[in-house]
Design goal:
The chain has about 400 residues and is an alpha/beta fold. Helix content is about 40%, strand content about 15%. The longest helix has 24 residues.
């Protein structure tokens, strides 16, 4: 346990959450889990709001919002003038794509590991103006970060119409850490804009958004930073701030970037107002270095144990491209499940409902894959229980 942590990671941490006592939770990466103290703070803020709603919205809210935004900016290495709260990374991608003025000859580059909702947001944006999409198929095995960089850069060189590239910082289906800093540098040499979908990155990777230098960066805080769900952010490079407006136009229309995002009609901002406390919880767990050590030792063991038990292999990527808190392995042939996206979803649902086991199954590159996560409350027993569930499904 870190001296400054205040918590001992592992089974003792279950008491800090409302997770079902007999549930197997090895999919923190999808929806997170909110600590009790954060939920209680949100409830306190909701009650405070309703003691005097007019005073809350006209006086109390702005100071609380700004102080939490400053805490977030410090955590992710952002100028507070360049970052705003939004509900989630999907909202961030939609906000950028619906503000960029695309023309018919423009192309947006995404890839086969781009999150599905983001792919659909891009499709919606290009359909409105007759622009186009190129989806780059990332071929396995991936042997180095240079392989990823070269594929994207060469695609942009061959297609001069590419206006913007969307790239995950950590991909959702495959838990690959993309070399975004190098990609941004190379793509900017070609005059290509870069939107980073950092849904999984905050709390899992050390961030310095000003140094990173993307054009746009969006992330979630509910996954690995312990905020309530509905708390994310959009960072916009200073040179683009004047061109980005929120999806909802309200009273602060034509004011500066931050003011427009602050006022978007009457809404409950208490999720955002728990950010500082949630980041403090993250620090009490030891911060990224302690959390990384806990997760990596647990996942390295769990991945090998599962591969041995299921007679299968890991996702073929180098260790340097593996997300700290997630691992992916190929599922063997299973009884009654085909290799389709719909079947991956059905398998997840049935494992949850029949075994109270929460994991993540995805489909790409012609296989079903298992993505496992490790959070502060996980132990080896969780993955051994998962193994027993999966062995009953193997042909």
């Amino acid at each position: 346990m870190s001296e400054e942590a205040g918590f001992k990671l592992g089974s003792q941490m279950r008491s800090e959450f409302y997770l079902e006592e007999k549930g197997i939770f090895v999919n923190h990466g999808s929806f997170g889990a909110v600590p009790k103290q954060i939920i209680q703070e949100k409830q306190r803020l909701v009650a405070q709001m309703d003691l005097n709603p007019d005073r809350w919205f006209r006086n109390d809210l702005k100071g609380l919002y700004d102080s939490n935004l400053e805490a977030l900016a410090k955590f992710v290495g952002a100028d507070p003038e360049n970052i705003v709260f939004i509900p989630n990374a999907t909202t961030g991608v939609n906000t950028v794509m619906k503000n960029i003025m695309l023309e018919r000859e423009d192309i947006i580059l995404l890839n086969s590991h781009t999150y599905d909702s983001c792919s659909k947001a891009i499709d919606c944006a290009v359909r409105r103006c007759g622009a186009d999409i190129i989806s780059l198929d990332l071929i396995l095995p991936i042997r180095s970060e240079d392989q990823l960089i070269d594929q994207m850069v060469e695609t942009c060189k061959r297609n001069a119409g590419i206006r913007l590239v969307i790239v995950d910082h950590i991909s959702s289906p495959s838990a690959i850490v993309f070399p975004v800093e190098k990609l941004i540098r190379e793509l900017h040499k070609l005059g290509v804009l870069v939107l980073v979908d950092g849904a999984h990155a905050p709390g899992q990777l050390d961030l310095n958004l000003e140094k990173l230098g993307a054009d746009f960066y969006t992330g979630n805080l509910h996954k690995w930073c312990f905020t309530p769900r509905g708390c994310g952010f959009l960072w916009v490079n200073k040179k683009h701030r004047a061109s980005i407006q929120p999806l909802v136009t309200s009273h602060n229309y034509q004011k500066d970037f931050k003011e427009q995002f602050f006022t978007q009609g009457t809404r409950d901002d208490t999720d955002y107002l728990c950010t500082d406390l949630a980041l403090n919880f993250h620090r009490k767990c030891g911060g990224i270095s302690t959390l990384k050590n806990h997760a990596e030792s647990l996942l390295d063991w769990a991945q090998q144990m599962l591969c041995h038990a299921l007679n299968t292999t890991v996702l073929p990527v180098p260790p340097s491209l593996q997300a700290p808190y997630m691992r992916v392995l190929q599922l063997p042939k299973l009884k009654h499940y085909d290799i389709k996206h719909e079947e991956a979803e059905r398998l997840m649902q049935e494992v949850i409902m029949n075994h109270n086991c929460v994991t993540c199954v995805v489909c790409f590159s012609g296989h079903l894959w298992l993505r496992i996560s490790a959070s502060v409350y996980n132990t080896r027993e969780d993955y051994l229980a998962l193994k027993d569930v999966l062995l009953n499904l193997v042909e």
